[in-house]
Structure prediction request, 325 residues.
Amino acid sequence: MQLPRRGFLTLASGFAALPFGPRLASAEAYPSKPVRLLVGFPAGGQVDIIARLTGQALGDRIGQTVVVENKPGAGGNLGAQALIGSPPDGYTLFFGTAANAINMTLFANLPYDFAHDIAPVAPVNRIPLLLQVNPSFPAKNTAEFLAYAKANPGKVNIASPSAGTPPYLCVDLLKMMTGIDVTHVPYVGESQMLTDLLGGQVLAAFGGISPSVPHVKAGKLRALGVTTAARIAELPDIPTIGETVGGFEASGWSGVVAPKNTPKEIVDKLANAIHDLQGDPVFKGKLGEFGVALLTMSPSEFSKFIIDETDKWGKVVRFAGLKPQ
Prediction:
């Protein structure tokens, strides 16, 4: 039996719409329930605080509660693995960090490829880092620090927080680029590292600027150099390390990612909401209180950024022969 041409076209158009209808309806209805935002580090740290600020602001924009859930362990690996094993429906997100890119080389035999097993949504912030010393340390700037280290090989200890993080790798990046012989003293977290730095148990350290700025301004710590390509507003008189060591640049970063194969419509909706909250002076001001700066990219740009970061830090890890602590 032959259908009339008009009936055939109507039927064909109905079939053509079938594969796309449910997906579009799902994306348009998203989110219809609370969204989980996993964090790979303990509650109370800088990553967790920024994730909670982001989650609250994001929830206001998408009309649903964003529940932050901490899954610490293995330098952020456990949180990433939980994200990658979740349904790609936009209801489980992850607050990824530079540590997740670093860990791809630092940890052998991870059961996933972070850069390729996620759907990048949007970065949120960049975290400047700081080379700082106890005031009893003789160096007043980066050049004097390097000169002292070269004159005293193996006798200078440099602390860092959390194995696998950018501050941790900054120690080896500086060693690679300058040839200094220093002893790396990694800590489990930044809080204890700062306590020991203030108390003189360790005399030099790399760390995030936000917990250190109050101590620097009070004269309890001395800032020698920031790791970013340009000087930062919080410490405008402190030179970059790159002004002494050409090409030295490093920073932490955080951003929202979803499981691979999350529908593009959902990724774009979340990305647009994050870009909107980044334009909010209140949100930007809150980030500024923690010494971090906005980092804005499209999902495709963020994807390339994560791949580039994985390659950059992978070279440092392999050169230094680093292993997880």
Notes: The radius of gyration is 23 Å. The longest helix spans residues 299-320. Residues 132 and 223 are 4 Å apart (CA to CA).
